[in-house]
């Protein structure tokens, strides 16, 4: 074993995903865990999140931007889709709106929570946060289009009663979402890649600009550990979800709160990675992580849910209610005003965080 590999093995970020995966294996299949077990699972969840952020940064250093942020966003979303389907299979009638609640929560968390927090950190450190309006504006346009097509239109269609798509409409939404996501990835990574690279200020020196890229072996090890950590994050989130559901029911809170809490736990890796990028004045990377995660969450979740609905029993409620539609419209307008100038200040970050706080509060008290 080389000294580099041995050094990696000694790091806690190597053992964190392994321990979290062991905790997942020991707790899997149990409907309810005792209190001490839930506490241990939460600790494993935290270790897996921090490890995922570290290994995502190692991969990003090897492959460069915007591929690094794309890897983390897609990996988290793919596993998140598996979590949603698993919850819907075992959740019965109460799970009919899990997909809608979790996906919309992901949109609000990424577009307001992650973006707002990253803008706040970058503005406090450098007075203004700078990014490419062309690339970020394109990402925002895709987020708004996908959200409207999949979560807003079902409330207004008339082919099927209730806030649901008919089979044909759901198929169209799934194919359109997948195609639009594919076009976005092609534009981000090939055709207009420069729009999604960090903006460099005159005389700026970025911390990792001259860092030695890891070897291919190290990058592959980090990729494997990243996937293991993400599986542990989502799997352990599922293990604690019955406890969350019981707490929500006992407190008399809306069942949509479950989707909000699960989305928050699953998106922790992107949140931490975006904040760390903002501290390094790499605001474009933060934007890629935030909006890219929202795009992947919709563009990959809806097609899979549409396919899974063939054998899933019960209705598939996708349409948003009036309250959430108002929050989405407010988010779209404010986001456009933030993105168009290509730079933002402390004020824009505070506005986004205020919208996110309103979403969380109204989820608990609609």
From TrEMBL:
<feature type="transmembrane region" description="Helical">
    <location>
        <begin position="67"/>
        <end position="91"/>
    </location>
</feature>
<dbReference type="InterPro" id="IPR004837">
    <property type="entry name" value="NaCa_Exmemb"/>
</dbReference>
<feature type="transmembrane region" description="Helical">
    <location>
        <begin position="35"/>
        <end position="55"/>
    </location>
</feature>
<feature type="transmembrane region" description="Helical">
    <location>
        <begin position="103"/>
        <end position="124"/>
    </location>
</feature>
<keyword id="KW-0472">Membrane</keyword>
<feature type="transmembrane region" description="Helical">
    <location>
        <begin position="317"/>
        <end position="339"/>
    </location>
</feature>
<feature type="transmembrane region" description="Helical">
    <location>
        <begin position="168"/>
        <end position="187"/>
    </location>
</feature>
<feature type="transmembrane region" description="Helical">
    <location>
        <begin position="136"/>
        <end position="156"/>
    </location>
</feature>
<dbReference type="Pfam" id="PF01699">
    <property type="entry name" value="Na_Ca_ex"/>
</dbReference>
<dbReference type="GO" id="GO:0015386">
    <property type="term" value="F:potassium:proton antiporter activity"/>
</dbReference>
<feature type="transmembrane region" description="Helical">
    <location>
        <begin position="346"/>
        <end position="364"/>
    </location>
</feature>
<feature type="domain" description="Sodium/calcium exchanger membrane region">
    <location>
        <begin position="36"/>
        <end position="189"/>
    </location>
</feature>
<dbReference type="GO" id="GO:0005886">
    <property type="term" value="C:plasma membrane"/>
</dbReference>
<feature type="transmembrane region" description="Helical">
    <location>
        <begin position="12"/>
        <end position="29"/>
    </location>
</feature>
<feature type="transmembrane region" description="Helical">
    <location>
        <begin position="218"/>
        <end position="237"/>
    </location>
</feature>
<dbReference type="GO" id="GO:0015385">
    <property type="term" value="F:sodium:proton antiporter activity"/>
</dbReference>
<keyword id="KW-1133">Transmembrane helix</keyword>
<keyword id="KW-0812">Transmembrane</keyword>
<protein>
    <submittedName>
        <fullName>Ca2+/H+ antiporter</fullName>
    </submittedName>
</protein>
<feature type="transmembrane region" description="Helical">
    <location>
        <begin position="257"/>
        <end position="277"/>
    </location>
</feature>
<feature type="domain" description="Sodium/calcium exchanger membrane region">
    <location>
        <begin position="222"/>
        <end position="364"/>
    </location>
</feature>
<feature type="transmembrane region" description="Helical">
    <location>
        <begin position="289"/>
        <end position="311"/>
    </location>
</feature>
<dbReference type="InterPro" id="IPR052946">
    <property type="entry name" value="Alkaline_pH_Ca-Antiporter"/>
</dbReference>
